[in-house]
Amino acid sequence: MSAAGPTVTRRTGLAAAAAALLTATAPAAAATAAAPSPDDRLQRDVDAIRATGVTGVLAEVQTAQGRTTARAGAADVSTGRPVPWDAYYRLGSDTKTFTAVVALQLVGEGRLALTDTVERWLPGAVRGNGNDGRRITVANLLRQTSGLNDYVAVSVSPDDFTPEGYRKGRFRTTAPREQLTAALSRPPLWTPDAEDPAGERRWGYSNTNYVVAGLIIEQVTGHPWAQEIHERVIEPLGLRNTLVPGTSCHVPAPTAAAYTHFPGSPRPTDTTVAGGGGADGGIISTTHDHGVFLRALMSGKLLRPAQSAAMRQTVPADDWIPAPGVRYGLGIAWRPTTGDGGGIWFHGGTHLGVVSESGVTADGSRAATSAAFTLQTDPAPQEAQAKAALRLVDNALRPGGAG
Q1: Which domain holds residue 264?
Q2: Torsions phi, psi of 259, nearest 5?
Q3: What pLDDT is stored for residue 39 in this prediction?
Q4: Averaged over 78-96, what is the pLDDT?
C-alpha cells in the first residue's frame, strides 16, 4: 500500500512494567470490575503497534461527539521527545482517495466519464509493448483493473533500497511522464477487465494507474493536479494542515523522524527527507485532517450520490493486505471488520519511514486514523505491524469503540 494529528498517556518502558506489575498483583475482582474506557482501548492498540518495533505512533478517532487521541514511542530516538500531537506526515497511497474524489467530481460535472478511455485524454501516451490506452478506461485506472505495471516495481532496484541508496537518491524526483515511461517498458499484466479463473475481474495494485489519473485530471481541467486537490478538497473542508509539497523533500514541523529498516541493515535509517510523489502518493497531512476528509467523503459532502455509489462498486482485492475479504472500489477499499459482522471503508499508504492506516464507517459517523513512523521491510515484523494497525481501526470503528 503503498503513502501520512494529533497530553500524553504513554505506556512504554518503566510505565508499561509498572502497569503489568499492578495488574498481576491486584485482586481479581478489582481487575475485572470495569471494562477499559475508550481512551484506554485506543492507547492499548497504539502501544501494540509500538511493540512491533515502531519508533513512534500517533492515532485519532473522530465522531460527531468529538475526538480521542493516543500516542506512543518517540519522535526522535536520539532525544526521546514524544511524537507531537499535530505531527505532519506523508500519507503515501492514502493520496489515491483524494485523487479519485477529484476525478469523480469531474464526472459529476459532466466533464469526464468513467467510460472515457485514456487515449481520449492522453492520445498516444499509453502505447508500446502491448500496452494500449484505447482499451483502458478511467474506471479501470481508479479501480486498479487496467493491467498496467507498477512503475515503482519496475524502476526501483535492490541497490536503491539500502541506506546508501536512500542517501544517494533522496533528493531525486521523477516526473509523471517518466514514471509512465518506466511502466510501459514492460508488457501489461493482463488486458483491461480480464477475468480470473473464478470469473472475477482481475485486479492488481499499481501506482501507475493514479499517475495516469492525475495526468487526465490536468488535461480535463487545464490545471495542475495539486491545484485541483487544494481547490476542490483541502480548502472547502478547511484542512489547514494538509498540503501537496510538489518537489520539496521536506515535511513541515512539527513532525516525527521517519525510520526505515532496510533489508539486512543492523539499525533503522532516518528517512524523513525524501522525494514526495504525485497523484499516487504525494499528500502530506495529519491524523486529524485525514479523519475530517474521510468522514466528509462518506457522509456525502464531497461527491454527488451517483458518484458516491460508483466509488463503492468493488472487485475482490485478494492478498493486498493481511486481512480477508478485501474489495477495492474507485480509490477506496472495503473489508469486513472482525467479530461484529460489519465492514469499513479504508485505503492505507506507505512512504519511506511512515505507514498510514485508517478507516471510516459507511455513513461517515466514525473515522480512525493512525501514523506509524517506522517502515519495516522484513516480512515478520512488517506483517505484525500491519495486523496491529488493522486491529486498531477495527476496534475503533465497531460500536462502543474509542471516541
Answers
A1: 14-397
A2: -105, 140
A3: 80
A4: 97
Q: What are phi and psi of 170, to 5 degrees?
A: -65, -25
Q: How far apart are CA 274 and CA 245, in angstroms?
A: 11
Judge whether 257 and 271 are in contact, CB under 8 Å: no
What is the number of structural domains in the chain? 1
4, part of any domain:
no
- Kindly state whether residue 6 falls inside one of the protein's structural domains: no
Task: Check: CB of residue 5 under 8 Å from CB of residue 287.
Answer: yes
DSSP for residue 365: S
Answer yes or no: is pLDDT of 157 > 50: yes
Mean pLDDT rounded to a whole number for the chain: 89
- Round to whole Å and give the CA distance between 212 and 251: 25
Q: Residue 339 pLDDT more than 80?
A: no
Q: Is residue 372 part of a domain?
A: yes
CATH label of the domain that carries residue 108: 3.40.710.10
370, 46 Cβ separation under 8 angstroms: yes
Strands 374-375 and 315-316: unpaired
CA distance 335 to 344: 6
CA–CA separation, 49 and 389 (whole Å)? 6
Q: Which pLDDT score, from 0 to 100, does residue 36 have?
A: 54
Q: Report how far residue 356's alpha carbon sits from residue 351's, in angstroms, rounded to the nearest whole number.
A: 8
- Cα separation of 136 and 24, whole Å? 60
Distance CA 214, CA 25 (A): 58
Closest CA to 375 of 348, 335, 344: 348
The whole-model pTM stands at 0.90
Query: Dihedral of CA 377/380/381/386: which sign?
Result: positive
Amino acid at 204: G
Q: Residue 284: phi, psi to the nearest 5?
A: -110, 135
The answer to whether residue 243 scores a pLDDT higher than 50 is yes
> Could you tell me the pLDDT band of residue 255, with boundaries at 50, 70 and 90?
very high
Cell digits of residue 44: 492499548
Per-residue model confidence as pLDDT tens digits over 265-286: 999 999 999 987 899 999 999 9
How large is the average pLDDT for residues 241-264? 95
Bridge partners, residue 56, by sequence: 73
Residue 351 inside a domain? The answer is: yes
